[in-house]
Amino acid sequence: MSQWERVQTNAQDRERIWSVPRTFAGDVWFRFRKKPTALAGFLIVVFLLCFAVFGPYLSPYGYSDQSRALANIPPILSVSDAPDGNYLYVTPALKVILIGRDGKLLGQLSKGKDDETLRRIAYTLDAQTEVYLDYSQKPAMILSAEGERTPASKQVWNTTYLLGTDQLGRDILTRLMYGARISLMVAFVAATINMVIGILYGGIAGFVGGRADAVMMRVVDIISTIPLTLYVILIKVTLDNGLLSIIIALSSVYWVDMARVVRGQVLSLKQQEFVLASRAIGSSNRTIMLTHLIPNAMGPILVTVTMLIPSAIFVEAFMSFIGIGIAPPMASLGTMCNDAMEALRSNPYQLFLPALVICLIMFAFNFVGDGLRDALDPKLKK
Amino acid sequence: MSERPLLRVTNLTKHFPVRGGGRRVVHAVDDVTFHIDRGTTFGLVGESGCGKSSCARTIIRIYDPTSGSVELDGQEIAACPARELMPMRRRMQMIFQDPYASLNARMTVRDIIAEPLNAHFAALSRAQADEMIFAMLEKVGLTREHANRYAHEFSGGQRQRVGIARALILRPDLVICDEPISALDVSIQAQIVNMLRDFQQELGLTYLFIAHDLSMVRYVSDHVGVMYLGQLVEMCAADEIYSHPLHPYTQGLLQSIPIPDPRLARLKTASGLEGDLPSPIDPPAGCRFHTRCPYAMAVCALEQPPLCEAAPGHCVACHLHTPRNCDAKSVSIE
Ligand SMILES: Nc1ncnc2c1ncn2[C@@H]1O[C@H](COP(=O)(O)OP(=O)(O)OP(=O)(O)O)[C@@H](O)[C@H]1O
Ligand SMILES: [Mg+2]
What we know:
The complex is a heterodimer of chains A (382) and B (334).
Chain A: H1 11-15, H2 24-32, H3 36-58, E1 76-81, E2 87-90, E3 96-99, E4 105-108, E5 110-115, E6 120-124, E7 130-134, E8 141-143, E9 149-150, E10 154-157, H4 172-208, H5 210-225, H6 228-238, H7 243-253, H8 255-269, H9 273-281, H10 285-321, H11 333-341, H12 349-376
Antiparallel strand pairs in A: 1-2, 1-10, 2-3, 3-4, 5-6, 6-7, 7-8, 8-9
Helix pairs in contact in A: 2-12, 3-4, 3-12, 4-5, 4-7, 4-8, 4-10, 4-12, 6-7, 8-10, 9-10, 10-11, 10-12, 11-12
Chain B: E1 7-17, E2 25-36, E3 41-45, H1 52-59, E4 67-72, E5 75-76, H2 86-91, E6 92-95, H3 109-120, H4 126-139, H5 156-168, E7 174-178, H6 186-203, E8 206-211, H7 214-220, E9 223-228, E10 231-237, H8 238-243, H9 248-255, H10 262-267, E11 308-311, E12 314-316
Parallel strand pairs in B: 3-8, 3-9, 6-7, 7-8
Antiparallel strand pairs in B: 1-2, 1-4, 4-5, 9-10, 10-12, 11-12
The complex binds adenosine-5'-triphosphate and magnesium ion.
């Protein structure tokens, strides 16, 4: 007996398309989210955006609020017990800070007599009690009631300044939020401007072709023979410090990559039959450019943009780091790194945290760019 | 000559500059002359790379011709400035070879078919356009449900029908079919060819039908032109070219048609065409085919044979068949 039975088909079934209709963007998203690194990168970008945009509104501190007394407090404190049940934290500068049991900073103890021979300092805890800080040996330690050095045995999380304070006593978490905000703002504005200039320049060069193309591309070649960062520094030196001038500096040279990509795309696309068909129809150059060439070049354009964002962020951080970027007291990840350099030994967290955020942003955008490139590649279509 | 032909191509030449090659050029189309009467089909055949597509694209002014003239219904288009071409573009359309590359993957079928309407009838409302598009879709055997789909969701045959709908929505007089079936399955080929024939009858279309082998052309064409390295080498009625091929190249092409019966195939003596197509950048002097021709004579390498009428209504450019009183200028098939 036959296992197979003939299925009756009619003309309508033959012409039917059985797949669910999916737009191009839907298709790309479908493939994008299949890739774990891309999705992780995307989620980190979303998280960082929220962090940078909404964070400052939730923070009780401003980016320039300082409390000199509570400078250089790390996020995780090694503390020893105080007689009244709270904790005591000794700073590298031999100040003693009273910490609540919940990790709140209650204030700096006032300094009493400094006994130079015994090498101990008295600090007033309250009217009756004094504690002694012994600095005869490193590290300095609080002396117990019996006069023994008690090592800082407990670790508590700093709940007043979750990520600690910098050397001026400013909240690092808040400054990271503002820093990320500047980074992302620079990145998005520079990326948008570069995209527009790059598409226009590269699109015109590729579309017109011939001699105009040759001249326009020589200009691009000349610009890109010198490292772009060098141009940005040179341009930046002649402008004031500040956000706007960084964006101007970044936008004036980074479009060359975009222009190259767009030109290459347009050159190959305009030989494709659907563009020839559009010419045979008699569509205007504008229509050909806007409905055929640019939408079909959008994949490589998007990938180039997401790859351009991390380099823009890095250049901004780098310029702020060497002191020609964002003007103080505004926080930028680069200036925060720079500030941390002075006391790197004693307060490594001040460098580590902004550097971590820079890495996170750059990783996230690189992963997103990578994922987009794969998702936009129609050959991988499943 | 009873009636003016719809399309008259005279001495059409298209040279492409060679990139980085100084003054050297690709002789894609060289001195091609033919005409097509209204309502008939002219088949243009030749090996891959002999300039068929270039010829078609130059006629329809995707490329600007190097020299020569193209008249559509008596109006010159080869020398017409681009902005005055619009009314003529409406009267001629093209169907392309590759159903995958000829439709924009970022557009829905509706927008693809609407593009000619938008370009030529700016005043048309969206509802009116939709009505025309749906009617056209039904004519090519698709339904209005297909209108909002993207081209990449369709099969090759369906895409090619979308291409046909795009070409026919403006109701053109002349349709240039550039190998419309060579990228399709054999079973779909017949479907598309029959559809094109039905449209020809219904709308009185005139076709320039391009193919690279002679088998399908015989079935659709009234007249056939054979192209070699940018030049027309033989031209006559479709049946004649099968019964009495004169040019050695045409004979070679006919022999390279696959024969379904293996016993017959074994009987075949000559094995079709030998050798490769010479470079169109510097084509051979004299007769361009002499490097591959089994009957080549001394004169073939020296002198280019003119296209002459060797038999009534049968033109050929070959020294074997050049009549003594040939005048190349008077060539025509009636
Ligand atoms: N835009 C162009 N620029 C430069 N050379 C071209 C261009 N288009 C075609 N050619 C050259 O012209 C010659 C003829 O090409 P054409 O595409 O017209 O051949 P064809 O007969 O249509 O071949 P096929 O059967 O493969 O489609 C080829 O040598 C090709 O390299
Ligand atoms: Mg071709």
